[in-house]
Design a protein that fits this description.
Blueprint lengths: L12 H21 L2 H7 L25 H12 L2 E5 L4 E5 L2 H10 L1 H4 L6 H6 L13 H14 L1 H6 L1 H15 L7 H4 L2
Antiparallel strand pairs: 1-2
Length: about 190
């Protein structure tokens, strides 16, 4: 066995710790700089505004536990319709207006709406033409418009008569009824 040009006894523990810290720092820097968010920052992309994030946990501690809609409404007044939060490494974008949702869903759908192609869903089960599984293209936009026309806010007004008739009938059935009402409701 050959002898080393230096004695291991001369290497102090502090030098070993320093070398380990440098290696760990370089590994952390490499991993952080190769993530998608780092690549996006280098390309000039900017995150949407949002509440101030802590170093490692992001917005985990200031994210609402209950009555989230009140917090989101308050954040919308402070930061705008599109808000970015980071929940300990889980990025989340909160959209607070129909205009912001439509802007992302219709005008920029080719950028934001790609869905992964899974053989089970598309090829075996044949769900490639179901709206939630469709890739953003002309057919998707047309189906989305038809879907909005069928169950959107304006379309629901057309069902008001049917809904009020059903509610009146249900209330008539409850009159003088005793027992478990689940059968009447689910009928």
């Amino acid at each position: 066995m050959s002898k080393l040009p230096f004695s291991l006894d001369s290497v102090s523990a502090s030098h070993a710790w320093a070398a380990g810290a440098v290696v760990a720092g370089l590994a952390t820097w490499y991993i952080a700089s190769s993530t998608n968010s780092a690549k996006a920052r280098r390309a000039g992309a900017v995150l949407a505004p949002g509440p101030k994030r802590a170093l490692l946990v992001g917005n985990l501690f200031n994210f609402p536990k209950g009555r989230w809609y009140e917090t989101f409404t308050q954040w919308a007044e402070e930061y705008g319709d599109i808000i970015y939060v980071d929940l300990g490494g889980l990025p989340m974008v909160i959209l607070n207006s129909l205009d912001a949702i439509n802007d992302l869903a219709e005008k920029k759908m080719n950028i934001h709406s790609n869905r992964p192609h899974t053989n089970m869903v598309f090829d075996i089960m044949g769900f490639s033409y179901w709206l939630p599984f469709m890739q953003p293209n002309k057919d998707f936009a047309e189906q989305r418009r038809l879907f909005q026309r069928a169950i959107g806010p304006r379309a629901v007004q057309e069902y008001d008569f049917v809904l009020s008739q059903g509610c009146s009938e249900l209330l008539r059935q409850f009159d003088g009824f005793s027992g478990e009402p689940l059968g009447l409701i689910t009928k």
